[in-house]
Amino acid sequence: MTSMIKLPIAKWSVEDARNLYGTERWGNGYFNINNSGELVVENPSNSVNAEVSLMDIVRGMKERDLAMPALLRIENILDQSISQLNEAFQEVITAEGYRSEYCGVYPVKVNQQAQIVEEVAQFGAQFNHGFEVGSKAEMIAVLSTMDENCGLVVCNGYKDQEFIDLGLQATRLGFDCFFVIETLTELPILIERSRLLNIKPNIGVRVKMTSQVSGYWNSTSGDRSVFGLSSRQLIDVVDRLKAAEMLDCLKLLHCHLGSQIPNIRDIRGGVLEACRYFVDLCKEGAAMAYIDLGGGLAVDYTGAQSNAGQSRNYSLREYCEDIVDTIKTTMDDHQLPHPVIITESGRATVAYSSILLFNILDVAQFEPVPPKVSSENDHELIDNMREVLTYLTPARVQECYNDIHYYRDEIRELFKRGQVDLRMRSEGENLFFEALHRIRDVTRSMVHVPVELEGLDEALADIYYGNFSLFQSLPDAWAIDQLFPVMPIHRLDETPDRRAVLADITCDCDGKIDQFINTSGIGGNGVAEKTLPLHSLRADEEYYLGVFLVGAYQETLGDLHNLFGDTHVVSVRINDDSSFDFVKEIQGDTIADVLSYVEFEPAQLRLKFRNKVEAAVQKGRISARERQQMIKTFQASLQGYTYYEKEPSVESSLATLTE
Ligand SMILES: *Cc1c(COP(=O)(O)O)cnc(C)c1O
């Protein structure tokens, strides 16, 4: 039973919680647990050890009437990710005597939220950190947000005339704009428009890589990749540029191996292939000076440090070293000047800074109540079930498991035919759970557990109902089974005495999290845990969980399943003295908002409802006073949050009405 977590019997300490939930393994130094058992965020850019408890932030949100669920952004972490990346490349460049520079660009598609793009532009300016855009919309967002002399603007994607005009005009404004040719159709447009507008463009070419990449997100590379030029097309571009006397505009080679590349060897292989293209384009007479390696820098979601899909087997430093070293060696071999190195890290830049916070609404448990003493009215099948419990030993555990299923199924059959009543059936189900629990307890002490019984922990796990929508807030957990670290953000000084899976509040059976990062034998085998250790709920106390590393790709891929809308977004900045400020805040969608997204007109809805209740008054079904109450409830709901509200605005509006 390798997948089982051994819950320690000795007194529980926060150190045990650190091991169990793996904060140090996946947290990149940003997260820890304090002595009061609360999860803390460290101010990463600071040596004084400033830290803030997530529970203090939750309390601050409560005071501001910001209900759960909420997306929390820690601005210091975003800043730190940008400086880490730039400083790591800078250090390696200095150490290896590389004779050019690193220029990072942030790919907007990874998180296009204005507050993120603005922060990257503002904080990244000191490193000349630029942007990668893949559409006109992203281009417009970037041109109006960043300073023209702060970093590159790399234009990927299919470019029509308007896209190209935007870029050419930006070039005239002073932006360092690069047009990366992805298909042959955009080249004639670029040549013609730049002539017409009399602007010399910076041109790049995106090559189709044949290096195959392992990992979870791996279809971007290879011969059948939808992106990039084949070598034949590449030669075509060179010839056409030569004919147009524009070969001196071709300066940049672009490749993108894929996102979340777990294995460093794949990265090295890809860089080597890119270098080959680069060298030969130089030979062709192009003015090559930039090599852009795209994204792919992975995030260790599981903390396993392995080459399995959702992890990575290298450090940031190694990533930089392999890139700088491979390029330097190749260029030196061919006596070519060292090009500017560009990477387009998105995931690693924004993943860590966002946390989804939610409260637990309810729990379903699969626990038996103490079985009744036998009575003579009991059906004989019930007696048989009781009997099973008497011969339960490690040697006969599989037999007991088979028997208890057989009797339970028999009772269900007889119930269908009317030969067993509801009370008897209920007693049977209870004895069934009693038996399963005892069987599980027996298997815990066994070295070799029968295969069929290995899933018992899962089968008996609690279901904790969380106040969030998987489809809105964690779309990749649903669509591609991505794992994110999930854990309680308080009570970590107490033993987590339950095992659970999480269900969201959509009425979709796919709206659940039942795979968790491997907390025990981190072997990098990619096997996920089926249950998450949690604490029993307490009456009158909220229980809060956090889902971590959700800053990349989750925010705008989400959808309106069951019309649950955007959550509130709160941005916090941690100060050196461990205080913190709420620096930005965006109210989540109201019910009126989400209804209007699907083309309902809130004003019309109000009018129609008003007419309905007025008609009811006319028919004498309700009083005019009751009509007013109904309208108030309706109005308050329209303006309310789409998620479960503990103190619904309806109640408060009724209260004010009766005053
Ligand atoms: C998606 C994408 C990226 C970002 O990749 P990450 O792995 O998230 O860093 C970079 N460049 C291009 C061209 C992309 O399509």
Notes on the protein architecture:
With 659 residues, the chain is an alpha/beta fold. It folds into five domains: 46 residues, no CATH class; 253 residues, TIM Barrel (Alpha-Beta Barrel); 83 residues, Lyase, Ornithine Decarboxylase, Chain A, domain 1; 76 residues, Methane Monooxygenase Hydroxylase, Chain G, domain 1 (Up-down Bundle), CATH 1.20.58; 54 residues, Helix Hairpins (Orthogonal Bundle), CATH 1.10.287. Helices cover 40% and strands 15% of the residues. It is globular, with a radius of gyration of 30 Å. Pyridoxal-5'-phosphate binds next to loops.
Give a quick rundown of the structure.
This is Arginine decarboxylase. The chain is of the alpha/beta class and 659 residues long. 40% of the residues lie in helices and 15% in strands.
